[in-house]
Automatic annotation (TrEMBL):
UniProt xrefs under Pfam families: Peripla_BP_5 (PF13433)
InterPro entries recorded: Peripla_BP_I
Name of the molecule in the record: Branched-chain amino acid transport system substrate-binding protein
Origin species: Pseudochrobactrum saccharolyticum
Lineage of origin: Bacteria, Pseudomonadati, Pseudomonadota, Alphaproteobacteria, Hyphomicrobiales
SUPFAM superfamilies for the chain: Periplasmic binding protein-like I
Transmembrane segments: none
Amino acid sequence: MKRIVEIGLLQSQSGNYSAISRASRAGVLQGVDEVNADNALDVAFHVIERDPEGRVDRYAPLCREILQNSQVRHIFGCVTSASRKEVIPELERFDGVLWYPLPYEGFEASERVAYMHSCPNQHLLPLLDWALPVLGKRAYFVGSNYIWGWEMARIAREQIAYAGGTVLGDRYLAIGDTELDHIIHDIRALKPDFILNSLVGDSSYAFLQRLAGLKAEFGSENSPAVLSCNFTECEIAPANGAAAGLISAGPWFEPENGQGGSLLEMSRQAVHELANLLHNRPQAEKLSLSELLLAALQHGYQPRLDPTNLHAAQPVVIARLEGDQFKEIKRLPQLRADPYLTHHVQRPQGTGFLKVVS
């Protein structure tokens, strides 16, 4: 008989980034079905789900509700870093763990979070290392106005400056904002070699659609390339054909035409990882994440998560969207996560950069 373990699911089915959250939700549910059907595992999952509706103010109360009113200690969910940071205090208060299956900006290592996707040394830095020699060194940044957009721009600005490049513009939009005239005007005037797009959800789709309109002016050969570390297969349809040619970095792309991409796959893998950690360990779901990983190691299971920083090692794949499928450009072997960039290549000493903001 399988023992039943309750798990939480906290993903939005509506709102400005619903395509992303629905893909992650589908991956969790697929993983649960697979685990429950696997007779080699002695654990089965029962899902308790809440829908934050894409509203950042709903994540913490719903996380608290799940942890207080059930046996759940492991929750799968959140899309934005803002929502992840909202639930961490609730996880600390009620001894919960968040399995977070989205790329993020790094500079965090909460003992309450299992970081199952990529951080900057596994997405942004390899993408820029490839892009700067190939595309050129004149960059333009556009991002959503919260920590993901800010930190991606900060890290990219330093990397580009050290490479002798220039950042021509750095603009932000509130999540869901689609007023883009000033940004399109900038790009038309400045003609960057590439654009780092760190917008999320509807803002990103609207931007790509407006940018597609510039291709007729620039000509396909002179149009700036668009780079992203968060655009995956689940967003191709919402972008309505405007994402053609976009270059993305991540740990996994669909081998054939698919709709979930790495967000679905990392969510699915996260469920399997928890099942493997709990297998043959009754009551292990009550352990802290660090204790759970240590117990697994003692029983001969090698976890996906690094016990020292709770991040998963990931390969790096750089791919270009052609039609409805990403085609691989470059692949790097699996990299250990370095969320604080402490092991990144050392830069020349004594060099500083000032950023003027208004």
